[in-house]
Write a structure and sequence with these properties.
By secondary structure, the chain is an alpha+beta fold. The protein has two helices and eight strands, in the order αβββββββαβ. A three-stranded antiparallel β-sheet has the order 1-8-4, with no helix packed on it. Strands 2-3-6 form a three-stranded antiparallel β-sheet, with no helix packed on it. Strands 5-7 form a two-stranded antiparallel sheet. A hairpin with a 3-residue loop joins strand 2 and strand 3 (53-59). The longest helix is centred in the first third of the chain and has 12 residues, at 2-13. Mean pLDDT is 78; it is low at 5-11.
Length: 135
Amino acid sequence: MLHLALLLVFLSAIPADIKILETKGAAGVAPCSRICSGSNGVGTNWREFVGISILVSIDMSECAFSSAPVVTTSLEGTGSSGYQVGGNSPLSVKKDSFIVSLNGWVYNIHSKPTLAIARQGKWRLNWVAVGYTCQ
């Protein structure tokens, strides 16, 4: 048990090898860099937007970024998720949240996704954010 405790102390003293070349927000210092990721869960948190799209708001407040991070997203599911327009385009990225809006299918942009399709296809938005926790 003592060996495990010493190993944990040693590992916590090793600095993370994270290098951020550019962010949308204010630059930070290396010890404050953070990678944070998550998912909205299967079929949850989607809402309709004026009948033209469905969107999901992602809460990143637990990441504790000091400014808006760089966010990358992917849409996962068992049905039609790979053909959506907008799934890899985070909107309104702030230090603690962002939005993704799904606007239609690649092969038929005029056909709009619905909440029922998102639930049936078990759509989930996975995300990774890279930024700073201090300036």
